[in-house]
Fold this protein.
Amino acid sequence: MNPDLAEPLHFEKANCLVLACGNTLRSDDGIGPRLAEWAAERFRGDGHVRVVARQQWTPDLATDVAAADSVLFVDSSVDSVPGRVSLVAVPSNRGNSDARSHHLEAHELLGLTRSLYGSMSAHALLLTVGAGSTELGETFSDQVEAALPRARGVLEKTVLRFLAN
Amino acid sequence: MSQTITIDPVTRLEGHGKITIQLNGQGEVEDAHFHVTQVRGFERFSEGRPFYEMPSLMARICGICPVSHLIASAKACEAIMSVRIPHTAAQLRRMMNLAQMVQSHALSFFYLASPDLLLGMESDPKVRNILGVAAAKPELGRGGVALRRFGQSIIELLGEKRVHPGWVVPGGVTEPLSTEKRDKILAMIPEAYANIALALGAYKKIADTFKAEIAVFANFPSNYMSLINEDESIEFTDGALRLIDAKGSTVEDGITATRYTEVIGEAVEPYSYTKFAYYKPLGYPEGSYRVGPLARLNIVKKMGTPKAEKELAEFKQLAPGLVESSFHYHHARLVEMLYGVERIEEILADSRILDKHVRATAGVNRLEGAGQAEAPRGVLHHHYKVDENGKMTWANLVIATGQNNKAMNLGVLQAAKHYIKNGKFTEGILNRVEAVVRTFDPCLSCSTHAFGQMPLAITLVSAEGEELDKVVRG
């Protein structure tokens, strides 16, 4: 942390932050919150893990990201094959951005955190599941339903690896 | 040959809208419109629902200002129940509405407007966003984030949820305030003051560099309307409406929710799904008026809190008579945020705020009821009719954006006429036209999760429909 930059006053410290995004009323877009729900249950009572699920990633989440040693972003992906589970590193974006409203992508939120608080999570990964349908609905497509066990496995393994580090 | 420029969607707004600018054969701006292109239909699908469900249903209209919908809706329900809610419940609601105003204004000022203000209207669009602000002015970025969290945290502490809390109900609120929660809120207040002071200081330093924008950003005489207390101080939750004319004289005072529909009509224009509210005795469009922070500060004589009082006095010096440029909405938001923090502190200093009696109960005692409250961007009106069993038979909502609709359109036209000459425009010029709409902070829709990126396409089309030029962002 750059001592010249003020530390956010109101935040919960966590070794590992699971930060999910999605709309549970938009079929496969709800995979992020669903996985967050599972993670909250799996790591219940573990003070090192904090789970947050939102419909959008907004700039105010920068304080949560700043307070975490590691961040696992969880989201659906319309650019990926339906049901494909991916885990990729998140680059920090401090300048150029397509942000045109108050919601951000994972790399933008990470870059914002770095600019505002000078802190950089040691590890930042993005777990995505390819979305087959984002139509109105509260159930997943067959592909995403089938991918759930694998997505949970990747999430669990990643969080445990973060904690081990 | 005439041409049309289209900006679709307008960026850094709450929701989806577009702007079209019509040029004549000489390339001069002939007309311009701001179009709201979404259809919501909340009034229709509330029919048949029990009236007491209305606050939680109507709050879903918006993810930024659901509290104002909750309050206006609950007040309409209380008119149907014919109850007066306990004092503590009214104060708790007031506090939540103020907290929402602070977080919404913080979002508008820091996340959506500050890229134009701090980085410049002509700055590179790739960095003209909250990330660019954070990189260039991190202390202001942190202040904005903290103020938004301040408001959200209070809403969450009171209502258990940051967005769409179910705590405001017909008759009052569901839970009283605990000592622990009160103390948590009080502990956040000093930091909130510091961040608002930082923002006000920064804004005042740069405001003079926007003289050209101030001159043409919806800068014209108009009527204004807002809630006001009997002692002429600002009010967001109770009080009655006052309408003033372009000279500041009161046109009509004491407009209660019940009387609202007697005096306010809604016109329809073919280019927008949002209606155009107007004062009936003056007709449309002469009876159009502005609402929101600029209107509130033009109407009130005092804020009622010491720090904001000083800022109001300074604000009123911005222009002789009323402050007419919509550019000053930004400044007004900062003054209101300061007021919000001060008022919350005052409310919490009263020991009655911990009283346990926070809800009145009753059934259907009237078949019609109306309620109003100030949303961050202007007054909000809910009007319901029910049957003997309390089922909704009819609803009408008049939202702030509809009341500012005419002014936004005239503002877009004014700026477009000033900046676009000989059919020539740059990205920076079009950003200024968008920025006019941003000053009003219209809330077109925020309750749905936008999936994917929002492209911005500006097309120049001839009268024959031929595409002459196109610029695509994103």
